[in-house]
Amino acid sequence: MNLSYFIAARYFRSKKKRNFITILSRISMVGVAIGTMALVIVLSVFNGLEDLVRGLYASFDAELKIEAVQGKSFLYDEDFISKITNTEGVEVVTEVIEDNALFKYKDYQHLARLKGVSENYLDQGRFEEGYVWGNLELGTDSQPKAIIGRGVGFYLSIDIENEFELLQVFYPKAPRNAGTLDPRQLYARNVIKPAAFFSIEKEFDDNYIIAPIGFVRDLLSYGQKLTSIEIKVHEGYRISTVKNNLKTVLGQDFSVKDTDEQHAGLLRTIKIEKLFVFITLSFILAVASFNIFFSLSMMAIEKKKDTAVLIAMGAKTDLIKKIYMKQGAIIAFSGAIIGLVLGYLVCLVQSTFGIVSLGISSSVIDSYPVKMIWTDFLWTSIAVITITFVASYRPAVIASKVKSTDL
Predict the structure, then answer these.
(1) Other Cβ atoms closer than 10 A to 398
(2) Maximum distance among all alpha carbons in the chain?
(3) How would you classify the pairing of strands 167-172 and 90-105?
(4) Whether 235 and 284 share a structural domain
(5) What's residue 97's pLDDT?
(6) What is the number of other CB atoms lying within 10 angstroms of the CB of residue 373?
(7) 102 by DSSP, 3-state: which?
(8) Which end of the chain has less Cβ packing within 10 Å, N or C?
(9) Which DSSP category does 113 fall into?
């Protein structure tokens, strides 16, 4: 057995003296364990929240979205759509026209996002996450129906059971005669029947109304133009592979975004928050390691005679340093292993039973989501090792300066 480790382990397990130094070492170990456990749990919660956001957004957004690089719309024809449809890995192609519009229901008005979609929109597995009230349908060309965000429905006090009241939609247009006094020349108007409500995420709930693309095209006078094309990928194909195939087919005039890129700002914010939480909790671990520093410093003083005996017997300075460095490592690693195991068990229990509730009755999920990733355990271990080395180095240097004449 390695001599320095053997001596360090004997110091750690010594039961002859339950003095203040031994108690402080145990407290250091507990502090590292609690800090490590907290770091694992918090990072796992952030992973769970990131996955939750991805899941909710994926329920509304397309797996891939094609947009023009310049301008908010682009011209299309059947050849263009066929070129996309025939791309390997593409299963469903949905045409989209989207713009802001004013909605009126009875005496209530609200400005929201009108999204016109082709008939196969619901074939892309939309609204699988969240809640839906009413009949999830877009109607026909003669009787179009709208799927309305719950927030929009609340603002307008829409009653989907009312067969007689229709939702009015207004869209501004450039008047043919700039000097006209007729306000009807300033906007286009049409009506549509509310069919269902959806609730996925507040951003969508408060801002979106889904309608048939024919209805929206006529209202907005878009003709042969689209604002985007949404793609569902064939099962068994990688989204990244299909994305690259589409980029090759469409060229540089169009961008192809996956779900993460469609909400890159939000996901980047979550990752930055996770990074700062990791740094903050690492500082807490560093504070806990001060106990390791003090306990090793006091142990170096207490074991001064033992150290002098070792030096008199021929022990080198490096051996003395290694004893105290490994003593600090034993304290920290014991705490870290306990913390990692406890953090894993807490996350496992939370993901299985959902013990800690969000406390929001209308939330899509009832409890805090957690997801454990092995890299979080790796980086936590690296942080503990680094902090332990820094905390143990100075006491080890002090102990190595003892001379045999100190006996």
Answers:
(1) 17
(2) 107
(3) antiparallel
(4) no
(5) 95
(6) 12
(7) strand
(8) N
(9) E
Residue 381 belongs to domain spanning: 3-57+266-406
- Do 225 and 272 belong to one domain? no
d(CA 269, CA 288): 29
Q: What is the reported pLDDT for 361?
A: 52
End residue of a domain, out of 230, 262, 294: 262
174 residue type, one letter: A
> What six digits make up the tokens of 160?
């989907």
Instruction: Give mean pLDDT, residues 366-388.
Output: 86
Q: How far apart are CA 332 and CA 382, in angstroms?
A: 12
18-33 average pLDDT score:
74
CB 107 within 8 A of CB 252: no
Which residue type, as a one-letter code, is found at position 115? K
The model's pLDDT over 140-194, given as tens digits with 9 standing for 90+, comes to 888 999 999 999 999 999 999 988 899 999 998 765 555 555 566 678 899 999 9
Alpha carbon distance 45, 239 (integer Å): 26
328 shares a domain with 223? no
Q: Given the DSSP bridges, would you call strands 108-117 and 90-105 parallel, antiparallel or unpaired?
A: antiparallel
Residues 161 and 239 in one domain: yes
Among 325, 294, 329, 342, residue whose Cα is nearest residue 36: 342
Tell me the torsion sign for CA atoms 212, 218, 224, 228: negative
Q: Mean pLDDT throughout 7-13? A: 65
Rg of the chain in Å (alpha carbons):
32
Q: Is 202 exposed, middle or buried (0-12, 13-18, 19+ CB in 10 A)?
A: exposed
How many whole angstroms separate alpha carbon 9 and alpha carbon 11? 5
Residue 243 and residue 329 share a domain: no
Query: Are the C-beta atoms of 117 and 210 separated by less than 8 Å?
Result: yes
For the chain, what percentages of helix, strand and coil (3-state, to nearest 5) are there? 55, 20, 25
